[in-house]
Amino acid sequence: MFLSISQDNHNITMSSYATIASHSDEVSSETYTERVVLAKGLSVQQQLKMLRFYLRRLPTSMDNPIISVYNFSSFSLPNDLVEEIGEIQAIDKELEARLGVRKHGLKLRERGFEIEVLVDLLEEWTNKTSGDVMLEVPGNLHGEILIQKWISDILRAAQNAFEDAEIEVSGHIVV
What we know:
3-stranded mixed beta sheet; 7 helices
C-alpha cells in the first residue's frame, strides 16, 4: 500500500494506492523528519483530517480485536477525577491510561473502529478548548495546547505504524 498526502492552500488531499514495490527495511531519517514537519505545518483541523485518514487505513498486520483495549466508543471521564484535577487533566490521564505515556512516544497496538472514533473525541475536545484561556499551572499545559499535543503524538504514532509495517507513506505540501 502507498499513501499519498498533499496540500494546496486550504485543502488537504489524501489517497491510498496498492503497490507491488518492495519496501526497504529502513526509512531514512530525512523521510521521517519530512513527515513530522508535514504534520506540524498543518492546522489542527487538517491534522485531525490526516489522523482520521491514517487511522482508517492502519496496516492489516495490526490486530483488529473484537474487544478493544482502547474502547473509545464508550469513553467517559470519571466524575471524581474531573472534580479532583479538572476536565483537561482528566482527559490527559484517561488518554495516557488507554494509549500510554507520550514522553517516550506512543505505539498503536490495534486498528479498527475503537481507535478510529478517537478522532471524533479529539475534534470535540479541540472545539471545546479552542481559545482556552485557563491559567497555566506549573507542569500543566493549557487545554488547547494539551489536546493539540495529543493529536500530534497520535498522528506520529499512526505514521510509525506504517513505517513498522514497511508501508511507504509519501507527503508533500504545495505552496
